[in-house]
């Protein structure tokens, strides 16, 4: 009887069994954790002792916290700088997609940042920015100039850290666009050549329209990556100097782990989640619209 039931219901039962572990993991790790974080944000809690209900006090304090606005501003800087990744990734993908001798080696060099851990990238750029012995110092000394201490400058440090994190993000976008270029419709390209499309005209009228969905995915993932930035800040500056490079994710971590203010950290996490939800909703709306268009 069990075998007969399986045969009758396997059209939906088999996919359900395969999806169940991932779905359970998503519900526990993502949904349940998000709900619990939101609940904790209404309490004053040091992470160990009893929790004290304080209502919206954490959010009220957050709105009066100058560091919150510095972190929010830094997230906006990260977002604007990260939006350079999709066009840069597309340009590199178009370059390395050419059938030229030695291009495989060039492609590997551009791909390398993607396989490096974010911590490794932070350490590498920490050495690069060193104003005394780093590569930046060597370049400046070659021109008889003194290299700026970027990671110690409160006005430039966020740009320096975001530039370091931008390196692997460009590589990621390059891989996405390479996949898109390898799936172009050869018939459309052939028809364009017959009509005399070359160079920029071919790119604009034939290639780019076919990369619309890939570009949309690249932009969406890049935006989310900019908003959840943490690793590079933690490794390169730990939020310094004087909190000038802190982003929302790092401020949440700092308040929770170092200051033992888990309720306040949860409030920051909730605000960050709401901001990210706007972009996630935009992404899903665009994805559904693209699917209906097909």
Structural description of this entry:
- The protein has 294 residues and is mainly α.
- It has a single domain, classed as MetI-like fold (Orthogonal Bundle), CATH 1.10.3720.10.
- Helices cover 74% and strands 1% of the residues.
- It contains 14 helices and two strands.
- The chain has a two-stranded antiparallel ribbon with strand order 1-2.
- A hairpin with a 7-residue loop joins strand 1 and strand 2.
- Helix 3 runs antiparallel to helix 11, helix 8 runs antiparallel to helix 11 and helix 11 runs antiparallel to helix 14.
- The longest helix has 39 residues.
- It holds the Pfam family BPD_transp_1.
- Keywords: Cell membrane, Membrane, Transmembrane, Transmembrane helix, Transport.
- Belongs to the binding-protein-dependent transport system permease family.
- One of its GO terms (cellular component) is plasma membrane.
- It is a multi-pass membrane protein.
Known CATH architecture = Orthogonal Bundle
User: Structural class of the helix and strand makeup?
Assistant: mainly alpha
Helix content: over 70%
Tell me the strand order in the biggest sheet: 1-2
Intertermini distance = 43 Å
What fraction of residues sit in β-strands? under 5%
Determine Rg (CA atoms, Å).
24 Å
Low-confidence stretches: none
* Largest sheet properties: 2 strands, antiparallel
Number of domains: 1
What do the pLDDT scores average to?
86
Q: Determine and state the CATH class.
A: Mainly Alpha
CATH topology: MetI-like fold
Oligomeric status of the shown chains?
A: single chain
Q: Note the overall shape.
A: flat
Number of strands: 2
Element-by-element helix/strand order:
HEEHHHHHHHHHHHHH
What's the name of the CATH homologous superfamily? MetI-like
Number of helices: 14
Membrane topology: Multi-pass membrane protein
Transmembrane segments: 12-35, 76-96, 108-129, 155-181, 202-226, 262-284
Main location: membrane
Subcellular location: Cell membrane
